[in-house]
Amino acid sequence: MVQHYSDRLDASFAALSDATRRGVLEQLGRAEASITDLADKFRMTLTGMKKHVGILEEAGLVATEKVGRVRTCKLGPHRLEEETAWLEEHRRLWDSRFGELDQVVEELKQKEKIDGRKKRK
Amino acid sequence: MDARRESELSPMKNRTTVERKSERELVVTRTFDGPARLVFEAWTKPELFKRWWIPKSFPVSLLSCEMDVRVGGGYRLLFGNGDAEPKPFFGKYIEVTPPSRLVWTNDEDHGGGAVTTVTFEEKGGKTLVVMHDLHHSKEGLDEALGSYDAIGETFDQLDEVLVTPAAGASQPLTASSRRTS
Q: Which whole-number Å values give the CA distances from B91 to B51, B75, B170, in the listed order?
């Protein structure tokens, strides 16, 4: 179960590690598009775009459907929410940790100021 | 200290960023309003470190904290969580360059842990802290991200969602809506 989960995350993160693929997701978030549309938009060959879409599809981030000769792409069932939630939880931990560190640093600064004054006397 | 004066001095809230740079790398960044030597001090003196490493809102306590901050020196943190067996975290410092760089190993997982590099970069009286975790494997990072109790509940819920067989396109995952806030 946990393994299943982390496999899926691996696939997603691998899929998201490429700027073109992130761009494709953004694009599909606005509207469905054919592979030809996407290839034009991102100025690459049809073969290149097919490869990117294939990786996104494998990660469940994109779903495609072939109607006649046109393969249409849209956002897939596996949304980005999982990854985002995962990193956001981690960010929140660090943010509260660092909130406390702010106080420690502020205190050290004040202490240094006071010590500095004492030294000058 | 005068409370009013303190609030006047307190700057705009600094943003913490967390990014998974690759399968094996996690990077956390944050700017602090103080010189690098003081921020570095807070990372390397146990009595200071103890005060912030475990935030008050965290359901875990830091029972003890020993740090021998020099190259080859060790550290050992002992976390308590209610009645559960205390969990130790330990490793060695492999680089100590005050006040700009600190590198340590995380050895509690029998050598399978991460290497943590923290850099402190001072600019105009502020210090940018970049904390970089390099794991031996992608599984290592996955586990580390899932190991905190505060997010354990979220993962339990995600697991529940994922147990539901073959949630197809008509049944998108509802992880975010079930997430505890």
A: 20, 6, 48
Q: Which domains does chain B have, with CATH numbers?
A: 11-137 (3.30.530.20)
Residue B67: pLDDT over 80: yes
Query: pLDDT tens digits, residue range B2-22?
Result: 444 444 444 456 889 988 888
The C-alpha atoms of residue B165 and residue B162 are separated, in whole angstroms, by 7
Asked whether residue A85 falls in the same domain as residue A68, the answer is no
pLDDT at residue A12 greater than cutoff 50:
yes
Chain B positions touching A32 (Cβ under 8 A) are none
Q: Give the count of domains, chain A.
A: 2
> Do A84 and A65 share a structural domain?
no
Which chain B residues touch A57 with a CB distance below 8 Å? Answer: none
Q: Which residue type, as a one-letter code, is found at position B155?
A: F
Amino acid at B169: A
Identify the pLDDT of residue A90. 82
pTM: 0.60
> Is it the case that residue A11 has pLDDT exceeding 60?
yes
Question: Residue A39 sits in a domain of what CATH number?
Answer: 1.10.10.10
Closest CA to B93 of B109, B112, B69, B115: B69
Find the mean pLDDT for residues B71-90: 89
pLDDT exceeds cutoff 70 at B151: no
**Shortest alpha-carbon distance between residue A48 and chain B (Å):** 22
Q: Which amino acid, one-letter code, is at A61?
A: L
Chain A residue numbers with beta carbons less than 8 Å from the beta carbon of B33 are 102, 105-106, 109
Would you give the distance in Å from CA B44 to the centre of its chain?
15
The rounded distance, in Å, linking the Cα atoms of B129 and B121 is 6
